[in-house]
Design brief:
The protein is an alpha/beta fold. The chain contains 13 helices and nine strands. The protein has two domains: 156 residues, Rossmann fold; 123 residues, Orthogonal Bundle (N-(1-d-carboxylethyl)-l-norvaline Dehydrogenase, domain 2). Helix 5 links the parallel strand 5 and strand 6. Helix 1 packs parallel to helix 6, helix 8 packs across helix 11 and helix 8 runs parallel beside helix 13. The chain starts with a strand and ends in a 12-residue tail after the last helix.
Length: 299
């Protein structure tokens, strides 16, 4: 069985490199530089998306949005222009509504699996990602050798689209916990608590979460520019999709809708391409207190 991978950015590239440790891959990315890097790592490179469709049996995608996924599959020179049978496995943090539409539009002989991940590029490199997999048993089974090469933490969520539902649920917590953590830090710091001590206490208390455990001590407190490697635009996209899914399925989501407004305001002010942690400026201005870079510097 031949595996293909399309989309070798920060996340997709890290996943594909992990796969390459035990699996043969044919890969494609719009960047020739990245394609050459993967060739040096032992991957076969394709010059077009259609070439991957012709040569691979199971093709993994990791792209910015579900609209990009649809384009890669259905464009005139897309995957199905040359792919007659096989599996497409979408590892994008996607929109489950569009994912299910894509599955229904695929020609017979081609099946869709959704397998978004959580844990970031570092988790991919370490082999510790959580992988949430939706799709038929037969289709998922054909993806497993490559997915198991990435991480042992694989969770079957149900039919196609459910992996993306679960990823949105996870990212809702990521987004709101980040804001709540910055808000708590602002309150504590403005009222006399040392920022590093605040983080230390939170991580021994019931308020502990990923933002207190990782984002504060490793990225925010030591750095005036707290870059963590995920953009404001992508975070806003994820929570917008969650909010829209809530509307379409009759689920009330007051907290995520409030968070959406804060992220949206940050994008309007500073643009969607900056790091997600730049939302902390909202709390610095509102509280007239320095938060990013307020802790001990690390080497």
């Amino acid at each position: 069985m031949k595996f293909g991978y399309i989309g070798l950015g920060n996340m997709g590239g890290a996943i594909a490199k992990r796969m390459l440790l035990t699996q043969e891959l044919i890969v494609f990315d719009l960047s020739e530089k990245i394609r050459n890097e993967f060739a040096e790592l032992g991957a076969q490179t394709a010059s077009t998306i259609a070439e991957i469709g012709a040569k691979a049996d199971v093709i993994f995608l990791c792209l910015p949005t579900s609209k990009d996924v649809h384009e890669v599959i259905f464009a005139s020179n897309g995957l199905i222009s040359t792919m007659e049978t096989g599996i497409i496995c979408d590892m994008t943090t996607g929109d489950p509504v569009i994912t299910r539409q894509i599955a229904n539009e695929l020609p017979s002989g081609i099946s869709l699996v959704d397998a978004p991940v959580s844990g970031g590029p570092a988790g991919a490199t370490a082999g510790t990602l959580a992988i949430m997999v939706g799709g038929s048993d037969n289709a998922v089974g054909q993806t497993m050798p490559a997915l198991e090469a990435v991480s042992p933490n694989i969770f079957r969520t149900g039919d196609v689209g459910t992996g993306h539902v679960m990823k949105l649920a996870n990212n809702m917590l990521n987004a709101t916990n980040r804001l709540a953590t910055f808000e708590a830090l602002a309150l504590a710091t403005k009222n006399g608590i040392d920022p590093d001590l605040c983080a230390e206490i939170l991580n021994k208390s019931s308020g502990k979460n990923f933002a207190t455990d990782v984002t504060l001590p490793k990225f925010v407190l030591p750095n005036d520019n707290p870059v963590q490697g995920f953009t404001l635009g992508l975070m806003h996209k994820d929570i917008r999709q969650a909010a829209e899914l809530g509307i379409s399925t009759g689920v009330t989501l007051p907290v995520i809708n409030s968070a959406r407004e804060i992220y949206h305001a940050a994008i309007n002010e500073r643009g969607g391409d900056i790091d997600v942690n730049e939302v902390i400026r909202h709390y610095e201005r509102g509280s007239n207190v320095k938060l990013a870079g307020s802790g001990k510097k690390t080497n």
